[in-house]
Amino acid sequence: MLSMCSDLVIRISEFLSDRAKIRMTAICVLMDRFKHKFTYYDKANVKIISMLPYFNNFRFIETFTDYIGQYPKLVEFIYFEANDDNIPAFVTHLKFATKFNKLITKCLPSTIKYLTFGADFNKSVEGCIPYSVTHLTFGICFNKSVEECIPSSVTHLIFGNRFNNPIKNNIPNSVIHLEFGMEFDQPVQKEDIPDSVVSLTFGWKFNQPIVCCIPKRVKYLEFGHHFNQSIRNAIPESVTHLTFLSTRVPFKSIPLSVTHLKLGYFFNAPINISTSYITHISIGYSFDHPLKSDCFPSSITRIDLSSNYRRPIPSDLLSKVVKY
């Protein structure tokens, strides 16, 4: 019976934060022994936890250049924020500090999975990124060529706001999540974006033709504020979630596969999606036009409006989106 109760307590603990787990063990002497049985998932400073009797139960830790002690036996991820190129071994999550802007040749251990560059970094990364990296994020200032720079291990690739370099043959087929920053406005040709991509975000200034450019596996697609190109027959039927941050939205050209539509902060024009199968629509802060029932499809179940919207909503439209 006690074994069953112990299993239940441990199972419940999996839904709690580390702080909540410790509070629970302080209830009584019987509960105190669970400190040594719980697994701790919140990121913890390795120096602070190094003397704890349940030190080995931590999975996510933050380390430092001057730390020379042991690491928990159950550790899965080791976080480190670098101010220089002295990177400890075994680091899995590496984030460079804001001001770091040095060449990183041969300084990155092959244990790194998540690599994030700081805001000021703007050096070539050719031959620098190990094949262990799966999540790669560049900072605001990075604007160097990425030709033969991105390893085929990367699945999530995010460029910073100033990146505006050609991407032809530079994005590996492993990438499933791809984001471009504010300044990116390079021509995109067929196959420039690999077929593996499922989530694709174009930044604020992107305004290039996209016909035959969007891979057929993309489900999540976002266009920035300046985008003003034709999307007729350009968006594949795989897309279910579509976002426009521009002020003009070609509603009639939205593919029937789209179920979730998001309109940006500056959008302020009449809406007519009556011929679509959209179920969810999110409308930005600037919108101030009447909502008409016959301009929404029967499939609609949710409309998100900003707190700034003050116009009345037709009762028959409310009946579609308000559930009791």
TrEMBL record:
InterPro entries xrefs: FNIP (IPR008615), LRR_dom_sf (IPR032675), STK_FNIP-Repeat (IPR051251)
Xref: Pfam families: FNIP (PF05725)
Organism from which the protein derives: viral metagenome
Protein name: FNIP repeat-containing protein
PANTHER family: FNIP REPEAT-CONTAINING PROTEIN (PTHR32134)
